[in-house]
Amino acid sequence: MENKKADGRVQQLLANERTFLAWVRTSIAIIGIGFLTASLHFTRAAGERADDQVAVFISFSSLFFGLLTIAGGAVQFYRTKKRILKFEVPSSSWIVVFLLIVVLLMIALIATYFIIQINWLS
Fold this sequence. Notes:
The protein contains 3 helices and no strands. The protein is mainly α. The longest helix is centred in the first third of the chain and has 43 residues, at 2-44.
């Protein structure tokens, strides 16, 4: 009986590690989107327009949110690990809500960038 509990904990701990690695991949994608937006903007044409500021803001905010996602994933990893070792059922709803907010903010920033681009082109 004890062996089955240990096997279950090992599986949960390994799943927790895979989840942490998924958070790291997500944060890399968030950071990459910001840098991609900025690099595409500044390789096209840079000037003293509002879209330059928006492109830089997108880049820095994506870096900030990406690092915050890694930190949140690490906190969640250690909290979940502690709960697994205590035979408690972990819940991760706060980090899911956080990531939803981050993704919506990034979409809003990139949409703002494209709106400014369209206004400058017309």
